[in-house]
Amino acid sequence: MIDWKAKVLEAIDEQQDELLELCSRLIQFPSENPEGDSREISAFIINYLKEAGIGTEVHLATDTMLNLVSTLEGKGGTGAGADRKLIFCGHTDVVPAGDRSRWDFDPFCGEIKDGYMLGRGASDMKAGLAGLIFATALLAKLGVPLSGELALLIVPDEETGGHLGVPWVLERGLITGTAAVIAEPSGPQNPTIGQKGSCWFEFTVEGTPGHGSLQPIVGDSAIVKAAKGIEALQRLWDIKADLPEEVKEIIRISQEYVKEREEYGDTAYQVFDHVTVNIGTIQGGTKVNVVADRCTIQVDSRVPFGVDYRTVLERASSLLLEAGIESEVKGFGFQGNANWTSTEEPIVSDLVESISEVSGEDAYGVLQWASSDARHFRTHQIPVLQYGPAELSTIHNFNEKAPVWQIIQSAKVYALTALKYLGVEGGQHN
Predict the structure, then answer these.
(1) Residue from 194, 189, 153, 151 nearest 351 by CA
(2) Looking at 22-172, which runs of residues are DSSP E strands?
(3) pTM (2 decimals)?
(4) pLDDT by residue (tens digit) across 144-200?
(5) Domain extent at residue 102
């Protein structure tokens, strides 16, 4: 009887240079979104999987945005995993590198230095994506007889809202599953099993133009009025969250985790049960010496359990009215409520157990204060959690990087999770 767990983990150790090279190559594709063009990186991934004997279905959301589905068929049998289908999910797009003069290295170098993989997307999430691809290809090349089916879903659109990625695929029935793992960045011992909701909205304030030399006597500045609205919207934080009993414990665990492990944890823990408010963009005025006749504000609000995102929109409208601003509050982009996957789901316990086995340390799931594609899987009744390598402070920042040891550990966790969740015919895997 083959000990598949030992064989797979040994193979990852022996082939870790190939894993790191794959990660470097993915980073070297400048797949910034916007504008969004996944053709070159997708072609590379398709070819890599083909060399491992894995075919890929290509589903075009647009001419330049390719969704990839690659599948390892299960062997069936009578084991617990025979009727299961696990989805490994990752996205190829990254946020723009921005001002390259503020980077200490080429943002698309994909180099390793001082134990870190460098480059845009290293943490979010090409290191994790590389781990998923590598683990899937390795299971195929080793001929591991998985009882259940393993599918690799690689999407081109997550960073701008993801409308052409995971939801596009799921809504069309192009992939189904009984569970999913997304390689989004997380703590090395702490996968994220739930996220706050999101409520992005904007409002436009109208003013009366005039000559700038006569302000504030002549003209009615839309920017000045908008500033009053911005101040009023800070009170969205005061919305009371009526926390459901079933999430109180995981919120407590997550708050303690943040206090102990995260930068600014002594204050950041509060966001788990409050509505947050970020004034993301302000666009107003036409010229410095003209009184602004219009100003549009875009707001990123994150919504805790126990608060409906529509309540946030309604309260925002009320606060603007109280500030003397009559403007329609329009939702856009991320819109949805907080969501999570129970710790009792097999995929959660299997992945957490895999982390502990690989690392030799305790592991447990926590909530995330941001949002991700996980919410779409949950909408389709697919239990999901996130786990991936990262230097969390560098995500969406200059000088993004990810620890090499976490890249290797994550690949091992992905492979071991597949063995546990799907089962192996005629071999040991636990």
Answers:
(1) 189
(2) 56-60, 66-72, 85-91, 112-113, 116-118, 149-155
(3) 0.91
(4) 999 999 999 999 999 987 899 999 999 999 999 999 999 999 999 999 999 999 999
(5) 2-194+338-428
What CA–CA distance (Å, rounded) separates 118 from 308?
A: 39
Tokens (6 digits) for 423: 């089962």
CATH of the domain at 25: 3.40.630.10
Residue 312: name the closest of 321, 298, 322, 301 by CA.
301
- Rounded to 5 degrees, φ, ψ at 149 are -100, 140
Tell whether 29 and 146 lie within a shared domain. yes
CA–CA distances in Å: residue 373 to residues 11, 28, 50, 332, 361: 30, 24, 26, 16, 28
Residue type, 226: A
Q: Which of 395, 390, 394, 387 is nearest to 415 (CA)?
A: 387
Q: Express each pLDDT in 217-249 by its tens digit.
A: 999 999 999 999 999 999 999 999 999 999 999
Domain end: 336, 362, 385, which one?
A: 336
Q: Of 336, 365, 386, which residue constitutes the final position of a domain?
A: 336
